Amino acid sequence: MKITPRPRPRAAWTIMLALLAIVALPTPSRADPGFVRAVISRGSFLVGVTGGHGKLTFHGRNYPLTITGLSFGASIGASTVVLTGRAHHMQAPADIEGAYSSIGAGGAFIAGAASLRLQNARGVVLELTGPKVGAELSVAAGGMWIMLR
Fold first, then answer.
1. 3-state secondary structure at position 12
2. What mean pLDDT is reported for the chain?
3. Which of 45, 66, 133, 143 has minimal CB crowding within 10 Å?
4. Torsion angles phi and psi, residue 93, rounded to 5
5. Which helix (H) or strand (E) holds 137?
6. Domains in the chain: boundaries
7. What is the per-residue pLDDT across 13-34, written as a single tens digit (0 to 9) for each?
8. With respect to CATH, is domain 32-148 assigned 2.40.128?
């Protein structure tokens, strides 16, 4: 007859507590996308000034946005762009607030297109595209600030 050792009660309790701890651990919070629509106007002659407004739609609610910006470099002209797209990696509407930086080159004469991919310190990534109207040529580095109104 073969004798099998009985599990020790302490080992069983240890295993049960370990399983309970695994089940009870908080899961990472899910980051959801938001939808952004922004109207941005820009005027520049070496220094560019940007201003605009927009709307964030997140979890079925709308939040008004204020957009400001500044750029430095070789730029001249004026333009307006209507951007739409997604804001990725958001957990709350306030996550969209903050400074976004960009470096790029672009141009428009009467009509053109704009495409932006920007990120803030909270990890929110904006992917925006839209038509650009005006006359502007630029090779500039700058930043943009978005705030909830």
1. helix
2. 78
3. 45
4. -55, -35
5. strand 125-148
6. 32-148
7. 667 666 555 555 544 456 789 9
8. yes
